[in-house]
Amino acid sequence: METKEVLVVGGGPEGVRAALEKAQAGVRVTLVERFPALGAARIPRDRIVAPDACFVNPELEEARVHPNIRILAYSEIQKVRRENGKIQTRILKRSLRVDNDKCTDCKACIQVCPVNMLDDFDEGLGFRTAVDYFNPQTAEFNIFKEDMPVCQQACPVHLDIRGYVGRIADGRHLESLALIRERLPIPGSIGRICPHPCESACNRQYLDAPISICFLKRFVADVEIAREITPAYKTASQKFPEKIAIIGAGPAGLTCAHDLARLGYENITIYESLPVPGGYLWVGIPEYRLPKKLLQREVDLICEMGIEIRYNTRIGEDISFEELQKSNDAVFIGAGCHRGLKLRIPGEDDFEGVVDCVTFLREQALGTRKSGTGKLIVIGGGNAAIDSARVGWRMGFDEVYLVYRRTRREMPANSWEVDAAEHEGVVLQYLAAPVEILGKNGAVSGVKCIQMKLGKPDASGRRRPIPVKGSEYVIDAQTVVPAISQTANLEFLGKSTEFRLTRWNTFEVDPDTGATNIEGVFAGGDVVSGPDIAIRAVAGGKRGAAGIHTYLRSR
Amino acid sequence: MCTGRLDPAIVAKAFKKGLDGLLVVGCYFGDCHYISGNYQAQAKIEMTRRLFEHIGVNPQRLAFKQCSSGEAAVFVEIVNTFDATIRELGPLGGDGDAVRNPALSEKLATAEAVLAGEKMRWVIGKKTPFTTSGNMYGEIFTEHEFNRAIDMIIVEETEVQEILGQLRQKALSVAELAGSLAIPPARIFRYVTALKRKGFVALEGISGRSPKYKLISQEVS
Amino acid sequence: MVYEKQGRYIIPFDDVPADRAPMPEISVDERRNNFVEIETGFPEETAIREAKRCLSCRRCLGCALCWAECKPEAIDFSLPDETLELAFDEVVLTCGQDNAFCDPDPELGFGRYADVLTDLQFERMLSPTGPTDGLALSPLDGRIPAHVAIVQDGRSAEDPGLPASLILGVNMAQLCSAQTRDVKVTLISPLSDEFKARYESQIRQITGLTLIEGTPLSVGRENDSDPLNVAYTSRSDEKVTIAADLVVILTRPDTAAYLRDLARQLDTAPPAF
Ligand SMILES: Cc1cc2nc3c(=O)[nH]c(=O)nc-3n(C[C@H](O)[C@H](O)[C@H](O)COP(=O)(O)OP(=O)(O)OC[C@H]3O[C@@H](n4cnc5c(N)ncnc54)[C@H](O)[C@@H]3O)c2cc1C
Ligand code: SF4
Q1: Tell me: the pLDDT tens digits for A120-135?
Q2: ipTM exceeds 0.85, yes or no
Q3: I need a labelling partner for B131 at 20 to 30 A (CA). Which of B57, C108, C161, C271 fits?
Q4: CATH code, C202
């Protein structure tokens, strides 16, 4: 029989003990530790001991030399998967960049290193330098070379933020824009609407406030327009003939098409059910946040690479999914989440004047719903709800109410959006939940709401709202826009139902390639993640493009 | 002498001895007999100016200008302008500078130590490779990033050299160091701990509740 | 807690603090009944000023000064990372060296005062290989504290994690008195009857350590030069305040996020303490 292989994660005293126990039983052990060396001996927590019995742990040394134990320090488990009774792993072993067999521990390097950093081994009490030892007992030196700064790490597409912001500081705006475009084909749009996870991570917040990373991106995109420059997106000189179909011209689909065209693919067609590109960037996010003209310009730049967008073509109606699959070498699905969720309360389907936010915003964006009168009630607390309310306010509704069942604190919408809505005169009603839509002669006349109070936190960590008995009241209204959430509409798949889906009705895909379980079909964006943010859809598109390229080239 | 040979530590020393201004005039970029001497000179002067600004010397007291040997009129213009600037600033450590005499001369002694240190010399010399072909990992710095790296060394080395300067005279506690330097004791504590780790200082003894630290003499290699 | 990965060490640059540039907007009056873009964009000068605020975070500069200084030529920047594909029959998840802990009660002043430490930090301080060679020192001023208060964070007497946390506290108190001259230590925590029955008499014998049964409320100071005030509710439900020169919080361990992720992918329970 083969010797059993065991993976022990964590090089603290606990992990060392587990590894030793297994190793002594004759099992082969791999001990993986994230930090550059095994941990320190500690103070016991299970018994009161004399001072000289603290910080002794002979097991550490034993584990270091045990023939059955392989220690992988400075290593990260990147992927684990159960397969045929085995656990398959991918482990990244980082380089120490110091050959510790040659090192004589003379400390000459740490005396000259110009970079001081907080020392993890000493729990941030002291300093170490970029080249230094981690655990003084093992005295193994390593160079701390991070892959990227924290802002870039937080960015879903890992934009070189330090690089592009630095170029702006140097006054090299167009070079900055070119650097952004290396990874993001729609900088002007994203630079306007991104909720910027990078800024939430930025180190400068600990000194005063984070860098305005997002708006700086917008700035360089605007510089190009102001200087009336029309750039040409480059494509590789080596061309590939395979036919690729992309469903949906949202940020995921557009980015996927762009990346593939850049790699040299010449037969890319995007099928879009709407008459306009951009997905929610066009029909969700309102014009006052992202001008359509600007979005159109960025889409045009992508199309100039030789990509065709077939508008008004709905897969599943105008062309069946099977047909698309058959006539293409690869398919990317970036169909988004375009079905508004129902409130599931009485009266919702009975009266004229109840429109879900997806439809409401889309009709406004496409020009089929121009104005409104009377009172508008928007129900929900996300960005889509705020957008609907602010759009309603601009359309001329006399009064706009936003009803949310928790408080301002729990609202998922970006705080600056909520501020702006309030500023513009939207009335925000917290701790209120609709229980019935009321109507007269077939038209909405109002919403019956119930007052809520906050109870214990639920699984998401937010406090769960509980209705207060007997507190019902009525707000009259002529239009009601539920903006609870959206889900994917996968009817277009028709008969091909062998797709593996999650319980949220989204595609299950390979985390590395975006491949679905059906060969040659890839997916990305909201249709995989559920309603999310545009830059993560862009990341999904990029992953899909890379996946398709690998797939087609290895076929 | 090629301007590239200029030693910033000597510049600081000259100011410490009472110099009011220094104008370095080199040849134009592209004309350098040693290819990149004038670039190096520019980088060195630029970084020394940043350091001067940090310690409270008006950076206008230091300038790098270019002209060729045939341009007498240009040269005269450069010199006259600089002369006027310095006249306006007045003597070093007076109204023209953020820090006054005699505190300024101690600051300049620190500046000299910073500029003479290996870190500063080495990293300044890396400006051209870092911003064109890249560092050891092939990563290219923007000008801004390079300046940040230099600023980091300026800020930290100034503080460290001030601490070492005090310890050179006698063993001191964190509180005593904080008493004579304008650095918060919590930072001094961190630096002292770091200097101990690096083998520059050691615990001398404890007086009352205050550990005192002494300098370890370094063998000169 | 992972300090290093939080970002680069924060340096008091000369340009700190500097205001973040505000985005110019059109007024509310200009917005009614139209869809004109609200935000008008940074002027160039603003953008450059904002961009210059960036700290250009980078740890190793790649300057190779260490390489130049290393006589045995042990430093090699080109040593590559390795990716290993390995298969196992079994996986054991343990808490590694992240030492993640639940955020202490903000009232206890961690992060606000340099002389409020976590138990993990104090443990390192007491270690012979630690940053102070085992001396208990206040990071605020580098002095030896006359009085150290060790306070329990967010546990009730019934908390199953309480004994381990208290024993760590007791061991730290003993070490502290043994290694640093003239330090008094007070340990403030709720106590269970079981714990008292088992350990109380043993603890009361330790010289220099005072055990107080109570619930810590807050830690703070009025003036920068004052000692810390540690307030707690005593067993008789009275509010008591004592002064301390160093406060150590007994934290509640947490499972690091990456371990939770791993456990989820493996469909097993995350490691707990
Ligand atoms: C009101 C609102 C406001 C938002 N605000 C922000 C914001 O401020 N910042 C931010 O980052 N994100 C925001 N988002 C989210 C963001 O817009 C989405 O996450 C992003 O657009 C998702 O991109 P996607 O490419 O996956 O899908 P989508 O953008 O939804 O695009 C999918 C496209 O596929 C098309 N399609 C669907 N089915 C078919 C079919 N069968 N055949 C052909 N075409 C099809 C659709 O018409 C659509 O054009 C907002 C979303 C909404 C709804
Ligand atoms: S300061 Fe912020 S934006 Fe600049 S590199 Fe650091 S984390 Fe990134």
Answers
A1: 899 989 899 999 999 8
A2: yes
A3: B57
A4: 3.50.50.60
In a domain, C16, yes or no: no
Taking the centre of ligand 2 as the mean of its atom positions, its distance from the CA of residue C55, in whole angstroms, is 6
Cβ of A214 below 6 Å from ligand 2: no
pLDDT category at A351 given cuts 50, 70, 90 is: very high
The number of folded domains in chain C is 2
Tell me the per-residue pLDDT of B94-126, one tens digit each, with 9 for 90 and over: 999 999 988 999 999 999 999 999 999 999 999
Answer whether A167 touches B (CB < 8 Å). yes
User: Which residue ranges form the domains of chain A, and what is each CATH number?
Assistant: 5-93 (3.50.50.60), 158-226 (1.10.1060.10), 243-338+488-553 (3.50.50.60), 340-485 (3.50.50.60)
CA distances from C253 to C96, C104, C188 (A): 12, 10, 18
A10 and C57 in contact by Cβ < 8 A? no
CA distance A74 to chain C (A): 10
Q: Whose CA is nearest to atom 12 of ligand 1?
A: A533
The C-alpha atoms of residue A300 and residue A320 are separated, in whole angstroms, by: 27
pLDDT band at C273 (very low <50, low <70, confident <90, very high): low
Cα(A149) to centroid(ligand 2), Å: 7
Calculate mean pLDDT across residues A316-334. Answer: 96
Tell me: do C172 and C88 sit in the same domain.
no
pLDDT in the model for residue B189: 95
Residue whose CA lies nearest to ligand 1 atom number 30: A336
Name every residue whose Cβ is closer than 8 Å to that of residue B135 and which is 6 or more positions away in sequence.
B126, B129, B141, C61, C62, C63, C64
Ligand nearest to the CA of A365: 1
Is B64 in the A-facing interface, judged by CB distances under 8 Å?
no
CA–CA separation, A76 vs B206, rounded Å? Answer: 44
Looking at A454-468, A481-495, B12-26, which range is the least confident one? Answer: A454-468
Q: Which of C9, C35, C265 sits opposite A286 (nearest CB)?
A: C35
Q: Which residues of chain B from 174 to 193 reach within 8 Å of chain C, CB to CB?
A: 174-175, 178, 185-190, 192-193
Residue A74 binned pLDDT confidence (cut-offs 50, 70, 90): very high
Contacts with A82 (C-beta within 8 Å, 6 or more apart), sequence order: A88, C266, C267
Q: How far is the CA of A280 from the centre of ligand 1 (A)?
A: 3
Comparing CA positions, the residue from B158, B125, B36 lying closest to residue C63 is B125
C56 lines ligand 2 (CB under 6 A): yes
Question: Dihedral through CA C190, CA C193, CA C196, CA C199, nearest 10?
Answer: -110
pLDDT, one tens digit per residue, over A465-523 is: 899 999 999 999 999 999 999 999 999 998 767 899 999 999 999 999 999 999 999 99
